[in-house]
Amino acid sequence: MTWLITGGAGYIGAHVARAMDEAGESVVVLDDITSGVAARLPASVALVRGAVSDRALLDRVLTEHGVTGVVHLAAKKQVGESVERPLYYYRENVHGLTVLLEAVVAAGVRSFLFSSSAAVYGVPDAELISEDAPTLPINPYGETKLAGEWLVRATGRAHGLTTACLRYFNVAGAARPELADTGVFNIIPMFFDRIERGEAPRIFGADYPTADGTCVRDYIHVADLAEAHHAVARGLAELAPGEDLTVNIGRGEGVSVRELADLVNEVTGSGLEPVVEARRPGDAARAVAAVDRMSKDLGWTASRGVREMVESAWEGWRLHHGDAS
Questions:
Q1: Looking at 141, 168, 208, 219, which residue is catalytic?
Q2: Which of 52, 20, 23, 54 is nearest to 36 (CA)?
Q3: Quick one: 80 and 160 in the same domain?
Q4: pLDDT tens readout for residues 44-56
Q5: Whole-structure pTM over 0.85, yes or no?
Q6: DSSP line for 285-307
Q7: What residues make up the domain containing 25?
Q8: Is residue 219 among the annotated active site residues?
Q9: pLDDT, tens digit, for every residue of 14-66?
Q10: Could you tell me if 22 and 98 lie in one domain?
Q11: Packed helices 140-159 and 96-107: angle between N→C axes, nearest 10 degrees
């Protein structure tokens, strides 16, 4: 098969593109390079610069490259920004997906894999969150991901596509330093940024009903996440036209924010004790994936632990931001 990966030069996208390329798949990437980095991609992967909202470009790429499947990762993903700019998020994440699906249907593409998020669950009240849990997003970002799932499944049923929606939990780490997350939006880079500036890492709320009072989250190594995409892509070949697979992508293990902060201090050699600040609105006490569907249906489970995530992320941070040791 030939897979088009939208957003394939981004942090997650480049890992997915490399994993699928190394597994022998034919891969072409579409990325507007607003946050992606072309150098992340191997020479064997073709890069087309442009947006998923450009229908003429999509038609050309799908035809010229003989695309048979799409992995759609291109999206805006900052929760706070989505609250401030909901129209922008709906235009980018939902309208862009609509244009892409129209082109996919017109080109006769048969498989579509959608990058979704645990944000669709909102603030769940469960020890482990299964794919059948209520979907009650609490911010525009999560709403756009849920709307995207609806649109993908409806299109698949109407036009005979096999579709998959992957609900990511907290992604971290790097397969190699040059592929590391260069932004300061996720918790581990946020810890690194504070430490590098000589400031104590921040913990938002320490009075949750958890073992140490801080939020508990499920962290997945980005290299595992990339391998999961390939497993799902293979699994789509076993589905009948119009069928959908919706799966959580996590480890099924919870790590508290304080435990993570302690591990970051250990890996970086920092002696800065975290400071506790007020809770952030909308933070769930616990959000950990039930992952049995992925393991049973597709025979895939994550293999990398949190220490490997932190160590690889730190190596990448030092490459991109200078040696902070």
A1: 141
A2: 52
A3: yes
A4: 999 999 999 999 9
A5: yes
A6: SEE-B--HHHHHHH-------HH
A7: 2-171+219-249
A8: no
A9: 999 999 999 999 999 999 999 999 999 999 999 999 999 999 999 999 999 99
A10: yes
A11: 20
